[in-house]
Amino acid sequence: MPTLIPRSPILIRGLAIPFATVAMALTALMGCAPAAAPAARTVTLQTLNDSGVTGTVTFAALGDKTSVEIAVDPGANPDMPAHIHPGTCDNLTPQPKFPLENVLNGSSKTDVPASIDELFAGDLAVNIHRSNDDLKTYTACVDLR
Question: What is the radius of gyration, based on Cα positions, of the chain?
Answer without folding.
Answer: 27
